[in-house]
Design brief:
Belongs to the Glu/Leu/Phe/Val dehydrogenases family. One of its GO terms (molecular function) is nucleotide binding. The structure is a single chain. The chain folds into 3 domains: 54 residues, no CATH class; 135 residues, Leucine Dehydrogenase, chain A, domain 1 (Rossmann fold), CATH 3.40.50; 165 residues, Rossmann fold. The protein has 18 helices and 13 strands. Helix 2 packs parallel to helix 6, helix 7 crosses helix 8 and helix 13 packs parallel to helix 14. Bound molecules: 1,4-dihydronicotinamide adenine dinucleotide and 2-oxoglutaric acid.
Length: 448
């Protein structure tokens, strides 16, 4: 790290003890900003980087709810409103037992730069809870969401903070959250949440957008080397929203996607993932990934967690789409020894710093999540545009807008990397390009 940035890093570490994912995300951005502060020393004088690393507001609250057995359960709710230089705070809600402040802060921090890269007027934020929807009835999930929104509603709004989904928060949860917001405020404020159902203010393509956008980014990276996805073997981790739609578009572009996973293990299906079956098990039945192998038969295999890693499967392209720090140095070595040519992060920070370095040193095309998975939040901003104009766009038009946005993100990352003497380094390009726009807005808006 540039020595001028070391004091900033030390202060962040001191102020946020125990928040290792947040520190990891800050480190990754600061590693890229050395050449920027050499060229723009006024950013240091105005403490812009220190300010970006400190959330504007952090809200932590109790979420009491009653389970089906009549017992009162208590969870903890979070919303971190990180940076509003470019627009209202925007970012998803994660419901997962691993959630604590450090996870929400890492995600909110990433969101600042990601949202800037989309070119849309949205700031960065994130929220969630340590509540686990897995194994809970629809009624329990509804009571939890209603209680969560009973506190959150006072902090959010179309012009203030616009949450959406993330791990454990899909269409069902957004519906319950929206219903409770409407009931408490007595306002049909469509733009307060995104990821809504299509008949009540949602946007076509939002469901597909994150996974589709990741694959579009891969297409653009491969095109820079006169290559395509056609005929490539692709390994995908996860089997949630991002993984499913990354698989769908990769298949449409002629790739053979051979894996899917969840926290219980992974499946390897050399003939290619049967996406209708995967969607039925994961989206409709909310089942486990080994059900896939039982119903698919043939050469599909299930490998339980602890008995192997999805990244041991030979693939030309790897798409980590499950969760943070799921692809380690040893996984990167396995992928490299099998000849991987491109890796794109559908999830947020799924690749450890060590694994990222291994890919970059081997000249593998590597797309960081804040660029590659920005299609989801970009399409959320398109949903907000439709809500604000009381309009509803068609699928093809919205898809084309997403395609154009993803190409713009790819080209900006490539151009910034080139401009700072790091051609082909999409990590540096994304961090620099995302940062510069926010930093200039903060300078223009004074010391706030
Ligand atoms: N949904 C969206 O629009 C966006 C999501 N992301 C990121 O993509 C990733 C996946 O999110 P979604 O697909 O929306 O969530 P989801 O809840 O639909 O699916 C999450 C998937 O990850 C797996 N998973 C979660 N924790 C795991 C663990 N500890 N070990 C192994 N597998 C695990 C789950 O089994 C599931 O298959 C997350 O990192 C999220 O932050 C990023 C941008 C937008
Ligand atoms: O659509 C959104 O607002 C949020 C998406 C999200 O949480 C993410 O980009 O990680």
């Amino acid at each position: 790290m540039d020595e001028k940035l070391q004091p900033v890093r030390d202060a962040v570490l001191k102020r946020n003890p125990g928040e290792k994912e947040f520190i990891q995300a800050v480190d990754e951005v600061l590693e890229s900003l050395g050449p920027v502060v050499s060229r723009r020393p006024e950013l240091l004088d105005a403490s812009v980087i220190e300010r970006i690393c400190e959330p504007e507001r952090q809200i932590i609250f109790r979420v009491p709810w009653v389970d089906d057995a009549g017992k009162v359960q208590i969870n903890r709710g979070f919303r971190v409103e990180f940076n509003s230089a470019l627009g209202p705070y925007k970012g998803g809600l994660r419901f997962h037992p691993s959630v604590y402040l450090g996870i929400i802060k890492f995600l909110g921090f990433e969101q600042i730069f990601k949202n800037s890269l989309t070119g849309m007027p949205i700031g960065g934020g994130k929220g969630g809870s340590d509540f686990s929807p897995a194994g809970r009835s629809d009624e329990e999930v509804m009571r939890f969401c209603q209680s969560f929104m009973t506190e959150l509603y006072r902090h959010i709004g179309e012009y203030t903070d616009v949450p959406a989904g993330d791990i454990g928060v899909g269409g069902r949860e957004i519906g319950y959250l929206f219903g409770q917001y409407k009931r408490i405020t007595n306002r049909y404020e469509s733009g307060v949440l995104t990821g809504k159902g299509l008949s009540w203010g949602g946007s076509l393509v939002r469901t597909e957008a994150t996974g589709y956008g990741t694959v579009m980014f891969v297409q653009d990276m491969l095109a820079s080397r006169n290559d395509t996805l056609d005929g490539k073997t692709v390994s995908v981790s996860g089997s949630g929203n991002v993984a499913i739609y990354a698989t769908e578009l990769a298949q449409r572009f002629g790739a053979n996607v051979v894996t899917a996973s969840d926290s219980s293990g992974y499946v390897h299906d050399p003939k290619g993932i049967d996406l209708e079956l995967l969607k039925q098990i994961k989206d409709v039945e909310r089942g486990r990934i080994n059900d896939y192998v039982e119903r698919r038969g043939g050469s599909a295999k299930f490998i339980p967690s602890g008995k192997g890693s999805v990244w041991e499967v030979s693939a030309d392209v790897a798409l980590p789409c499950a969760t943070q720090n799921e692809l380690h140095g040893k996984d990167a070595k396995a992928l490299l020894s099998n000849g991987v040519v491109a890796v794109a992060e559908g999830a947020n920070m799924p690749t450890t710093a060590e694994a990222t370095r291994l890919f970059q040193n081997a000249d593998v095309l590597f797309a960081p999540g804040k660029a590659a998975n920005a299609g989801g939040v970009a399409t959320s901003a398109l949903e907000m545009q439709q809500n604000a104009s009381r309009d509803s766009w068609g699928f093809d038009y919205t898809y084309d807008r997403l395609r154009e946005i993803m190409r713009g993100i790819h080209d900006n990352c490539a151009a910034s990397a080139e401009d700072y003497g790091l051609p082909g380094n999409y990590v540096a390009g994304a961090n620099i390009s995302g940062f510069m726009k926010v930093a200039d807005a903060m300078l223009a808006q004074g010391v706030i």
